[in-house]
Each structure stands twice: as C-alpha cells, then as structure tokens.
Design a protein that fits this description.
By secondary structure, the chain is an alpha+beta fold. It has helices at 2-19, 23-34, 39-45, 54-92, 110-123, 138-141, 174-182, 222-237, 290-295, 312-320, 327-330, 333-336, and strands spanning 128-129, 135-137, 166-168, 187-196, 207-217, 243-250, 253-262, 279-288, 304-311. The model has no long low-confidence stretch (mean pLDDT 93). It binds 3,4-dihydroxyphenylalanine.
C-alpha cells in the first residue's frame, strides 16, 4: 500500500517539476512534495503502520525517491534559470538604431553678444578696447571723475565699500582715467565691464555691465558725440531709429546729455517697453569735463573729448524685449538658449 503511494508521489512530483514554467513555480512544487508539510513527509509519518521488519526497506526506498526528486529538481531549476535569463536578455536588448538623448551646444551669453557687437561697430570707426580692475581706489571711481565727497553716489547704500579707500567699481568710467593717465591722446577707446551697486529689483541687479566710450582729440564738439551715437544706434538697433539727447548732469561731463533712441520694439509707435513714449533710454554722455582732463595731466586748452556710458543688459533688454534684468544672471538655459545663433 505505502509503496504504491510512494511510487505515486514520485510520479506526480516528476511530472509537476516538468510542467513548472518558472523557477518560482518549481520552488512551490518542491515545497508541496518535499517540504516539511509536503506529501513525502506526510507519507513517512505513516511508516508506523508497517511491521518492524518492513520498515528499513521502506525507509531506504523513500530515501532513494527523495534523492532522485532532489536531483531532478536541480536539473530542472538550472534549465528554467537559463530560460529566464534568455527571456530577460531579449527584453532588455538595446536598440542601437534609436536616436540618442539631445546634446545642447553652448551658446554665447546675451551680455557677451551685446559686448561683441558693440565692440565690432565701434572698431569700424577707430575704437579699441581697454579694461580696468573691478576693485577700484576711491580716487579712480569718484575723485578723478569730479564726484565730490558728499555726492549721493558715494553713499554706503549705493556703493559696495571694500575698505576706507577701495570700492567695487560702480561704473566703467574709471577706465577713462586709467587710459588718460597712461596713454597719449588722441584716443578712441571702448571699455566694457562688470559694475556693482547695492540695488536689486526687476530692473536693477547688484552686478551688471556697462560699456564706456571715450574720445580725446582736438576741437571735439557735441556734434561729434551725437553723430557717433546716432551712427551706433543705427548699426546696433537698425535703420530708421532716431537718437535724442536730453540735457542732464554728470560730474565728469560738461555739458551732459541723457541718450534716448526711438523704441526698437515698436519703432517709436508706443508700447509696453517704452511705456508708450516711443523712446527708450540707453545711457549717459557728454563732453569730458575740463577738470577731469586736468586731473589726468591733459591741458583742456589743447585737448577736448566726449564720453558715454551705456548699460549692456539695458541694450539687450531693449533689443530683445526682455522683461526682467535678473534673467541675465539666473543662468536658466531655457532663457539663454533663445539667443544661440
Ligand atoms: N558713469 C555713468 C553711470 O554709471 C554713466 C555715464 C554717463 C558715463 C555719462 C559717461 C558719461 O561716460 O559721459 O551712471
């Protein structure tokens, strides 16, 4: 009786192992037949029914069945493992013909683009580039430019002071002084650079850029200044744009003028950018104050000059219709990529 049951279990177990389609299936079958509560263990518990003489022979038989099933299990397990590996590899195969992830090329920053373009335009009428230090002596940032001790620009609230004598330059105008001190006129120079002011909102950034221009020669007049700027405006923003001077005051120029050009976004018709005035402001200018010339050792009898200072971000804002100056320093590639050529 028991022997037949044993043979039956072996047959059922073998066929279940064969039918198992995954290693998990197979493992479940092993538990069902060979586990502690499995069919074989239950059968062995019935050995008590056998006579003393029959028991050893049956025990031996049962052990043989167990070993055969175990070795069959191992064989079947390795077959299934291989099959599963093959299936996984087929599923995970790489399609080498798919396009790769996009790679974005770097592009020039809009501030650098404006600098390069301005430098190119002024180079055509004889200007070359000068630079100066970001940390300036009070003497260069203020004193030599005829900015008196009590001028509001010197206020702690506008200027980043390094110590009593040094500031982060608040404008590029000190490069005028360095140039006149070290070079002989006639001069035509352009000085782009970073400047710093204690100010931050939608239209002010604590760090922005300016382009300084300086021409020193004999018999220089406001007409030369206006002609030069009108030429630049046409080259930079486009034909058909007018230039306008408004009387103003800067300590380092006399007379001084604020420079406007007709709004390039609406061509002077009136829009959000120009607050419906048709005009946008691009910077300050004027004839170099004789006091500044004298400070640099040039005789105002012999030499005159004009100077101008434009905001570079301001130029880009006007040219491209950008609404917030902070975009220039946030380095969001979605913003910057739009200027890629
Ligand atoms: N330095 C002035 C500023 O930062 C701008 C400026 C005005 C520069 C008139 C000039 C000039 O060279 O002539 O606001």
């Amino acid at each position: 009786m028991l022997k037949e049951k044993l043979a039956d279990i072996e047959k059922k177990a073998l066929s279940s192992f064969e039918k198992a389609q995954s290693t998990q299936d197979l493992y479940n079958m092993k538990v069902a037949f060979l586990g502690k509560q499995g069919e074989l263990s239950l059968l062995l518990r019935e050995m008590g029914k056998l006579s003393k003489e029959e028991r050893p022979a049956f025990g031996k038989l049962a052990n043989e069945v167990k070993r055969r099933l175990e070795s069959h299990y191992l064989k079947r397990e390795s077959e299934l493992k291989e099959k599963e590996l093959e299936e996984r590899l087929a599923q995970e195969a790489l399609d080498l013909t798919l396009p790769g992830p996009p790679r974005y090329l770097g592009a020039k920053h809009p501030v650098a683009m404006v600098i390069d373009e301005m430098v190119d335009i002024f180079a055509r009428v004889g200007y070359s580039v000068r630079t100066g230090p970001l940390i300036e002596k009070d003497k260069y940032n203020f004193e030599a430019l005829n900015i008196p001790e009590d001028h509001p620009a010197r206020d702690l609230q506008d200027t980043f002071y390094i110590d009593e004598e040094h500031v982060l330059r608040t404008h590029t105008s000190p490069i005028q002084i360095h140039t006149m001190e070290t070079e002989k006129p006639p001069l035509r120079i352009l000085a782009p650079g970073s400047v710093f002011r204690c100010d931050s909102d939608i239209s002010h950034s604590p760090n922005f850029h300016q382009m300084e221009g300086l021409l020193i020669d004999k018999k220089v007049s406001m007409a030369d200044l206006k002609g030069t700027i009108a030429f630049f405006v046409k080259e930079f923003f486009g034909e058909g744009l007018k230039t306008r001077f408004r009387p103003s005051f800067f300590p380092f120029t006399e007379p001084s003028a604020e420079v406007d050009c007709s709004c390039p976004i609406c061509m002077g018709q009136g829009c959000r950018m120009c607050k419906n005035s048709g005009w946008v402001e691009i910077g300050g200018s004027g004839l170099v104050n004789p006091k500044v010339l004298s400070f640099c050792g040039l005789s105002p009898e012999e030499w005159q000059g004009f100077a101008f200072g434009f905001g570079i971000e301001r130029m880009a804002i006007i040219k491209y219709g950008i609404e917030d100056i902070r975009l220039f320093s946030e380095n969001d590639t979605r913003f910057l990529r739009q200027f890629a050529r």
